[in-house]
Design a protein that fits this description.
This protein is an alpha+beta fold. The longest helix is centred in the middle third of the chain and has 25 residues. The protein binds flavin mononucleotide. Keywords: Flavoprotein, FMN, NAD, NADP, Oxidoreductase.
Length: about 220
Protein backbone atom coordinates (compact mmCIF):
# COMPACT_ATOMS: atom_id res chain seq x y z
CA UNK A 1 0.00 0.00 0.00
CA UNK A 2 2.82 2.37 0.96
CA UNK A 3 4.46 1.62 -2.38
CA UNK A 4 1.26 2.35 -4.28
CA UNK A 5 0.90 5.70 -2.51
CA UNK A 6 4.49 6.61 -3.33
CA UNK A 7 4.03 5.54 -6.95
CA UNK A 8 0.87 7.61 -7.37
CA UNK A 9 2.39 10.73 -5.83
CA UNK A 10 5.60 10.41 -7.82
CA UNK A 11 3.62 9.95 -11.04
CA UNK A 12 1.63 13.14 -10.49
CA UNK A 13 4.67 15.08 -9.26
CA UNK A 14 6.66 14.06 -12.31
CA UNK A 15 4.04 14.70 -14.99
CA UNK A 16 4.58 18.11 -16.47
CA UNK A 17 3.74 20.01 -19.64
CA UNK A 18 6.51 19.53 -22.17
CA UNK A 19 7.51 22.70 -24.06
CA UNK A 20 10.06 21.28 -26.48
CA UNK A 21 10.59 17.85 -28.03
CA UNK A 22 13.57 15.98 -29.40
CA UNK A 23 12.56 15.18 -33.00
CA UNK A 24 14.98 12.24 -33.05
CA UNK A 25 13.23 10.33 -30.29
CA UNK A 26 10.07 8.34 -30.97
CA UNK A 27 7.61 6.91 -28.51
CA UNK A 28 7.50 3.14 -28.99
CA UNK A 29 4.31 1.84 -30.63
CA UNK A 30 3.65 -0.39 -27.61
CA UNK A 31 3.80 2.61 -25.26
CA UNK A 32 1.62 4.71 -27.53
CA UNK A 33 -1.02 1.98 -27.66
CA UNK A 34 -1.03 1.67 -23.86
CA UNK A 35 -1.62 5.43 -23.66
CA UNK A 36 -4.51 5.10 -26.13
CA UNK A 37 -5.94 2.23 -24.06
CA UNK A 38 -5.90 4.51 -21.02
CA UNK A 39 -8.08 6.85 -23.09
CA UNK A 40 -10.35 4.15 -24.47
CA UNK A 41 -11.00 2.65 -21.03
CA UNK A 42 -11.88 6.00 -19.48
CA UNK A 43 -15.25 6.55 -17.83
CA UNK A 44 -17.92 8.80 -19.34
CA UNK A 45 -21.33 10.02 -18.27
CA UNK A 46 -23.76 7.10 -18.72
CA UNK A 47 -20.97 5.30 -20.55
CA UNK A 48 -21.60 6.95 -23.92
CA UNK A 49 -17.87 7.37 -24.76
CA UNK A 50 -18.47 10.55 -26.78
CA UNK A 51 -14.98 10.67 -28.24
CA UNK A 52 -12.60 9.53 -30.91
CA UNK A 53 -8.82 9.85 -31.05
CA UNK A 54 -6.99 10.71 -34.26
CA UNK A 55 -3.23 10.20 -34.52
CA UNK A 56 -2.31 12.99 -36.92
CA UNK A 57 0.80 11.98 -38.85
CA UNK A 58 0.14 14.06 -41.96
CA UNK A 59 2.83 16.74 -42.08
CA UNK A 60 0.98 18.93 -44.61
CA UNK A 61 -2.09 19.13 -42.39
CA UNK A 62 0.10 19.90 -39.36
CA UNK A 63 1.58 22.80 -41.32
CA UNK A 64 -1.89 24.09 -42.14
CA UNK A 65 -3.19 24.04 -38.57
CA UNK A 66 0.02 25.38 -37.02
CA UNK A 67 -0.75 29.12 -37.58
CA UNK A 68 -4.02 28.69 -35.66
CA UNK A 69 -2.62 26.44 -32.91
CA UNK A 70 -0.53 28.74 -30.74
CA UNK A 71 -0.62 26.28 -27.83
CA UNK A 72 1.00 23.62 -30.00
CA UNK A 73 3.81 25.71 -31.46
CA UNK A 74 6.44 24.06 -29.23
CA UNK A 75 5.18 20.54 -29.75
CA UNK A 76 3.63 20.09 -33.17
CA UNK A 77 7.05 19.61 -34.79
CA UNK A 78 9.27 17.71 -32.38
CA UNK A 79 6.67 15.48 -30.78
CA UNK A 80 6.63 11.97 -32.18
CA UNK A 81 2.87 11.55 -31.77
CA UNK A 82 0.28 14.27 -32.17
CA UNK A 83 -3.26 13.28 -31.20
CA UNK A 84 -6.53 15.09 -31.86
CA UNK A 85 -9.30 14.36 -29.39
CA UNK A 86 -12.66 14.62 -31.10
CA UNK A 87 -16.00 15.08 -29.37
CA UNK A 88 -19.20 13.56 -30.75
CA UNK A 89 -21.46 16.05 -32.51
CA UNK A 90 -24.66 17.38 -30.95
CA UNK A 91 -26.62 15.37 -33.47
CA UNK A 92 -25.05 12.17 -32.10
CA UNK A 93 -25.31 13.13 -28.43
CA UNK A 94 -29.06 13.78 -28.33
CA UNK A 95 -30.86 11.18 -26.19
CA UNK A 96 -32.75 9.91 -29.25
CA UNK A 97 -29.83 9.63 -31.70
CA UNK A 98 -28.73 6.58 -33.63
CA UNK A 99 -25.35 6.76 -31.87
CA UNK A 100 -26.86 6.62 -28.38
CA UNK A 101 -29.04 3.73 -29.52
CA UNK A 102 -25.96 1.96 -30.90
CA UNK A 103 -24.00 2.36 -27.67
CA UNK A 104 -26.91 1.26 -25.50
CA UNK A 105 -27.70 -1.80 -27.61
CA UNK A 106 -24.50 -2.95 -29.24
CA UNK A 107 -21.80 -1.81 -26.83
CA UNK A 108 -23.48 -1.83 -23.43
CA UNK A 109 -25.73 -4.72 -24.48
CA UNK A 110 -28.81 -3.60 -22.64
CA UNK A 111 -31.75 -5.87 -23.47
CA UNK A 112 -34.43 -4.33 -25.74
CA UNK A 113 -36.97 -3.96 -22.92
CA UNK A 114 -34.59 -1.71 -20.92
CA UNK A 115 -33.75 0.65 -23.76
CA UNK A 116 -36.79 2.98 -23.50
CA UNK A 117 -36.11 3.50 -19.78
CA UNK A 118 -32.46 4.30 -20.45
CA UNK A 119 -33.47 6.78 -23.15
CA UNK A 120 -36.02 8.47 -20.87
CA UNK A 121 -33.46 8.76 -18.11
CA UNK A 122 -30.97 10.39 -20.48
CA UNK A 123 -33.67 12.65 -21.92
CA UNK A 124 -34.54 13.86 -18.43
CA UNK A 125 -30.87 14.40 -17.63
CA UNK A 126 -30.31 16.37 -20.83
CA UNK A 127 -33.49 18.44 -20.71
CA UNK A 128 -34.05 18.95 -17.00
CA UNK A 129 -31.16 18.00 -14.72
CA UNK A 130 -28.33 19.60 -16.65
CA UNK A 131 -30.36 21.71 -19.11
CA UNK A 132 -28.14 20.63 -21.98
CA UNK A 133 -30.82 21.31 -24.58
CA UNK A 134 -31.00 25.03 -23.81
CA UNK A 135 -28.40 25.79 -26.45
CA UNK A 136 -26.16 24.09 -28.97
CA UNK A 137 -23.24 25.37 -26.93
CA UNK A 138 -24.45 23.80 -23.67
CA UNK A 139 -24.62 20.33 -25.20
CA UNK A 140 -21.30 20.65 -27.04
CA UNK A 141 -19.50 21.92 -23.93
CA UNK A 142 -20.90 19.00 -21.90
CA UNK A 143 -19.64 16.56 -24.53
CA UNK A 144 -16.23 18.24 -24.55
CA UNK A 145 -16.10 17.89 -20.76
CA UNK A 146 -16.34 14.14 -21.22
CA UNK A 147 -13.39 14.14 -23.62
CA UNK A 148 -11.16 15.70 -20.98
CA UNK A 149 -11.42 12.46 -19.01
CA UNK A 150 -9.51 10.30 -21.55
CA UNK A 151 -7.33 13.37 -22.21
CA UNK A 152 -6.24 13.41 -18.56
CA UNK A 153 -5.86 9.66 -18.28
CA UNK A 154 -3.61 9.68 -21.35
CA UNK A 155 -1.38 12.31 -19.74
CA UNK A 156 -1.07 10.22 -16.58
CA UNK A 157 -0.48 6.97 -18.48
CA UNK A 158 2.26 8.69 -20.49
CA UNK A 159 3.89 9.99 -17.31
CA UNK A 160 3.95 6.46 -15.84
CA UNK A 161 5.70 5.23 -18.99
CA UNK A 162 8.22 8.10 -18.87
CA UNK A 163 6.73 9.66 -22.01
CA UNK A 164 6.53 13.46 -22.05
CA UNK A 165 3.32 15.15 -23.12
CA UNK A 166 1.63 18.48 -23.82
CA UNK A 167 -2.09 18.98 -23.23
CA UNK A 168 -3.34 21.48 -25.81
CA UNK A 169 -6.40 23.66 -26.08
CA UNK A 170 -4.51 26.69 -27.33
CA UNK A 171 -6.01 26.89 -30.80
CA UNK A 172 -8.65 28.77 -32.79
CA UNK A 173 -11.35 26.13 -32.96
CA UNK A 174 -13.20 27.60 -35.94
CA UNK A 175 -10.08 27.89 -38.08
CA UNK A 176 -8.62 24.51 -37.14
CA UNK A 177 -11.92 22.71 -37.56
CA UNK A 178 -12.39 24.22 -41.00
CA UNK A 179 -9.00 22.87 -42.09
CA UNK A 180 -9.50 19.41 -40.59
CA UNK A 181 -12.92 19.05 -42.17
CA UNK A 182 -11.70 20.27 -45.56
CA UNK A 183 -8.84 17.78 -45.39
CA UNK A 184 -11.28 14.98 -44.57
CA UNK A 185 -9.82 14.25 -41.13
CA UNK A 186 -13.29 13.81 -39.68
CA UNK A 187 -16.94 13.98 -40.64
CA UNK A 188 -18.56 17.08 -39.06
CA UNK A 189 -21.89 15.31 -38.91
CA UNK A 190 -20.48 13.09 -36.20
CA UNK A 191 -17.50 14.89 -34.67
CA UNK A 192 -16.00 18.20 -33.63
CA UNK A 193 -12.54 19.03 -32.35
CA UNK A 194 -12.26 19.16 -28.56
CA UNK A 195 -8.55 19.25 -27.68
CA UNK A 196 -5.14 17.84 -28.64
CA UNK A 197 -2.15 16.13 -26.99
CA UNK A 198 1.45 15.85 -28.12
CA UNK A 199 3.63 12.94 -26.95
CA UNK A 200 7.37 12.48 -27.26
CA UNK A 201 10.58 13.08 -25.35
CA UNK A 202 11.77 16.44 -24.10
CA UNK A 203 14.78 18.33 -25.41
CA UNK A 204 14.99 20.82 -22.55
CA UNK A 205 14.39 21.14 -18.84
CA UNK A 206 11.03 22.32 -17.61
CA UNK A 207 9.99 24.74 -14.91
CA UNK A 208 9.53 23.24 -11.44
CA UNK A 209 5.92 22.40 -10.63
CA UNK A 210 3.90 25.17 -8.97
CA UNK A 211 0.66 24.41 -7.16
CA UNK A 212 -1.47 25.90 -4.39
CA UNK A 213 -1.09 24.22 -1.00
CA UNK A 214 -3.42 21.38 0.00
CA UNK A 215 -4.99 23.56 2.75
CA UNK A 216 -6.13 25.94 0.05
CA UNK A 217 -7.49 23.20 -2.19
CA UNK A 218 -9.14 20.78 0.22
CA UNK A 219 -11.78 21.78 2.74
CA UNK A 220 -13.33 19.33 5.16
CA UNK A 221 -16.90 20.21 5.99
CA UNK A 222 -18.33 18.14 8.88
C1 LIG B 1 -7.01 21.65 -20.65
C2 LIG B 1 -5.58 22.12 -20.75
C3 LIG B 1 -5.18 22.84 -21.84
C4 LIG B 1 -3.86 23.26 -21.98
N1 LIG B 1 -3.45 23.86 -23.13
C5 LIG B 1 -2.15 24.08 -23.32
C6 LIG B 1 -1.65 24.52 -24.58
O1 LIG B 1 -2.41 24.75 -25.52
N2 LIG B 1 -0.32 24.66 -24.72
C7 LIG B 1 0.57 24.41 -23.71
O2 LIG B 1 1.77 24.54 -23.92
N3 LIG B 1 0.12 24.02 -22.50
C8 LIG B 1 -1.19 23.83 -22.29
N4 LIG B 1 -1.63 23.36 -21.07
C9 LIG B 1 -0.66 23.13 -20.00
C10 LIG B 1 -0.87 24.00 -18.78
O3 LIG B 1 -0.39 25.30 -19.02
C11 LIG B 1 -0.16 23.31 -17.61
O4 LIG B 1 -0.78 22.08 -17.36
C12 LIG B 1 -0.15 24.12 -16.33
O5 LIG B 1 0.53 25.32 -16.50
C13 LIG B 1 0.48 23.33 -15.19
O6 LIG B 1 1.78 22.90 -15.51
P1 LIG B 1 2.20 21.37 -15.54
O7 LIG B 1 1.29 20.66 -16.51
O8 LIG B 1 3.62 21.38 -16.03
O9 LIG B 1 2.06 20.81 -14.15
C14 LIG B 1 -2.96 22.98 -20.93
C15 LIG B 1 -3.39 22.25 -19.82
C16 LIG B 1 -4.67 21.82 -19.74
C17 LIG B 1 -5.09 20.99 -18.56
Amino acid sequence: MQEARKFILETFQNRYTCKGYDPEKRVADEDFMVIMEAGRLSPSSMGYEPWKFVLLNNQAIKEKIRPYSWGAEKSIDGASHFVLILARSNQDMRYDSEYIQYITKEIQQFPDDQIPARRDKFKNFQEKDFKLMESERALFDWTCKQTYIPFTNMLTAAAILGVDSTPIEGFDREEVEEILIKEGVYDPEHFRLSCMIAFGYKNRDHRPKTRRRMEEVLEVFD
